């Protein structure tokens, strides 16, 4: 059987009222708009650094950035 104090504490946690034990929010990562062609073809993570991303530099791959051919249409 729960005591009144413990049930109050549990309900505060469920509502997000008790922030002392809450972990810090993860840092928000900036999404890349364009990965290099090599990383895209190999389906690996690209950090988007130029002139050569870290993945291509690590494996000594050619790092090429091609402009996108996709055109965005108007928003509805």
UniProtKB/TrEMBL annotation:
Its main location: nucleus. Residues 1-27 are annotated as: Disordered. One of its GO terms (molecular function) is zinc ion binding. GO terms for cellular component: nucleus. Keywords: Metal-binding, Nucleus, Transcription, Transcription regulation. Pfam families: Zn_clus. It is found in: Nucleus. InterPro entries: Maltose_ferment_reg_DNA-bd, TF_fung, Zn2-C6_fun-type_DNA-bd_sf, Zn2Cys6_DnaBD. Residues 7-18 have a biased composition (Basic and acidic residues). Residues 35-65 form the Zn(2)-C6 fungal-type domain. This is Zn(2)-C6 fungal-type domain-containing protein. The lineage of its organism: Eukaryota, Fungi, Fungi incertae sedis, Zoopagomycota, Kickxellomycotina.
